[in-house]
Design goal:
It holds the Pfam family AAA_31. This is ParA family protein. The protein is an alpha/beta fold. Helix content is 44%, strand content 15%. The protein is built from 13 helices and ten strands. The strands form two sheets. The chain has an eight-stranded mixed sheet, sandwiched between helices. It has a two-stranded antiparallel sheet with strand order 8-9. α7 packs across α8.
Length: 324
């Protein structure tokens, strides 16, 4: 099993849309067994993957969510041996649903991080909760994690145990700053973590769990306008391309490239798909699976076909990099 977090501490970059469509393409068209873990307390992935009736069942009938798995660590209890997942029929993926209550774990993990840095076993185990979660999902080909847009304790636990992370980004100056912040953040907590492990007096007490600093798989640019030239090829708008041309150098200057296993850094591009995105969200279906009953008319059909190619290329590149 390979685990990939979709993460950027800047919000509004199309992270959840990218993750859900990549997951669906990998399952529907590449035959992979996929689990989506919604680790964002905003629960946008869960909202996208399920219709309203299912959401009412999930949150109205005390359904199994990620918070059900995590909560025992705040009560000195054992984590569940079995995780109950929910199937998203339209996206053809299994889902560990999100929960707004997950946010309540943030302060607890932050406090336990302080003790973990000094070599306290309980603090180390608490911050490896995501490693235990992934261990229970070992039967999947890929686990895709929707991480929140923050540099907080939950995301630290996610990136401490996932194999890779992908950063979706919009083409603006703030996304460049986000890369610098992410690199500095990872560097600081990884140093703290290694010091904490060294400070454990009895190394035999360390949990037998897989952990390590996530490798940066690359970035996916999104949400810029594209025009076609006389040959029919997409052409980026100049203002956006000026910023885009700086991205790779920013990654190198920030040191984020030390965590990457592949070059070039860019995985692919998802141009603005306009009304197809809200249509996809309303239908709770992948963009490339939209049909006439979902509201597709006229020129929309060509854009749906384009979306199939766009998400297909990005998905294949992500999987290839994971296995490279």
């Amino acid at each position: 099993m390979i685990s990939v977090a979709f993460f950027n501490n800047k919000g509004g970059v199309g992270k959840t849309t990218l993750l859900c469509n990549v997951a669906a393409f990998a399952s529907l068209h590449l035959g992979k067994k996929i689990c989506v873990v919604d680790a964002d307390p905003q629960c946008n992935a869960t909202q996208y993957l399920f219709d309203e009736a299912t959401l009412e069942n999930i949150y109205g009938q005390d359904w199994y969510t990620i918070n059900k798995f995590v909560r025992p660590i705040t009560e000195a209890g054992a984590l569940d041996e079995k995780i109950l997942i929910t199937k998203s029929p339209e996206f053809s993926v299994d889902v560990l649903c999100g929960s707004p209550d997950l946010a309540l774990t943030e302060d607890f993990l932050a406090q336990d991080w302080s003790s973990a840095r000094s070599g306290d076993i309980r603090g180390i185990k608490s911050n490896l909760f995501f490693a235990e979660l992934l261990q229970r999902l070992a039967g999947y080909d890929y686990v895709f994690v929707d991480a929140s847009p923050s540099l907080g304790a939950i995301n630290r636990s996610v990136l401490l145990t996932c194999d890779f992370f992908v950063s979706p980004m919009s083409i603006d100056i703030f996304s460049l700053t986000a890369f610098k912040n992410i690199s500095q953040w990872i560097s600081e907590w990884w140093s703290d973590w290694l010091r904490g492990i060294r400070n454990v007096k009895d190394q035999s007490r360390l949990p037998a769990l897989k952990y390590g600093r996530s490798r940066f798989l690359g970035y996916v640019t999104q949400q810029y306008l594209a025009k076609r030239d006389s040959a029919g090829e997409r052409r980026g708008v100049k203002a956006y391309e000026a910023i885009r041309s700086q991205i790779d150098q920013v990654i190198i200057d920030s040191g984020l490239n030390q965590y990457i296993s592949n070059e070039p850094f860019e995985i692919g591009t998802v141009p603005n798909l306009f009304s197809l995105i809200p249509m996809s969200q309303s239908a709770n279906k992948p963009v490339f699976e939209l049909r006439a009953p979902d509201g597709v008319v006229g020129a929309h059909f060509a854009k749906v076909k384009d979306a199939y190619g766009i998400f297909g290329e990005v998905t294949k590149e992500i999987l290839e990099r994971c296995n490279g």
